[in-house]
Structures are given as C-alpha cells and as structure tokens.
Design a protein that fits this description.
This protein is of the alpha/beta class. Helices cover about 25% and strands about 35% of the residues. The chain is globular and about 45 Å long. The chain starts with a strand and ends with a strand.
Length: about 130
C-alpha cells in the first residue's frame, strides 16, 4: 500500500488551488466542474482540496474549521533547497508567517506558514 493523496477541506477550492500554484509552485492536476474538489501534483502523492460542505456529505463526521489561533492537527511539508526564498514567496502570495527559517540541530532548515484556510505548512530542506 502507498499514500495516494491527502485531502484538505477548504472554503473555496478554485481559490485554494490558485494559492498553492502561486505560493508553492504546485501544478494543477484537475478541478471538478462544480468546484467542489480538485487536485495538485506533488510528486507521487497528490494534494486534494475539497469544499467543506461537500466533505460533510461524505461522512457523518462534523468537520471543524481552524481559527486565527488554531489549526488542524496536520502539517503539510514541502521540501526545497532554498527555504528562505520559498518562505518569502509563500508570504507574498498570501500565506501567514508562523516561524521564520531556522537551522535545526539535525541540520535541516525549517520554516512555517499557515495557508489561506489555516493549515500549517512546513517549508524545509530535505533531511540530510
């Protein structure tokens, strides 16, 4: 078995796809005509984006939205050789700064932002 995709529940799928294309350089795989679901290419695993209301029709679970002071208990990690530039680009495209890039004791450079729907995104160098 392998991980095929991760789905984030968002307010507006076309807007979220546009954000991830601009902020992180991801490539759109597709967007459903009705705008309830779309996917971005990230390598072998895809990043899916689903409208909250649509996601709520699929399971009986209540899906809570993050607030300005909270986030979902999930983190997306994007690896790059130039964390500082990627961090600055993400902020310029609408991401919210959480933590500026810093080198960790294990040698990795790591920064954090929140996307336009409140998800925590790690921007980091590949593990040494």
């Amino acid at each position: 078995m392998k991980l095929g995709y991760t789905i984030l529940y968002v307010q507006d799928v076309p807007t979220a796809i546009d954000f991830y294309e601009r902020a992180f350089g991801l490539k759109r795989r597709f967007l459903a005509d009705e705008g309830t679901y779309g996917e971005l290419e990230t390598g072998e695993t895809r990043l899916g984006l689903s409208k909250y209301e649509f996601a709520c029709t699929l399971t009986p679970l209540e899906i809570e939205k993050p607030t300005a002071k909270t986030t979902f208990p999930i983190e997306l990690g994007f690896a790059t050789d130039d964390v500082e530039s990627a961090f600055q680009k993400a902020i310029a495209e609408g991401a919210v700064k959480v933590k500026a890039p810093e080198e960790k004791p294990w040698g990795q450079v790591v920064a954090y932002v929140k996307d336009i729907d409140g998800y925590l995104v790690e921007i980091c160098t590949p593990m040494p």
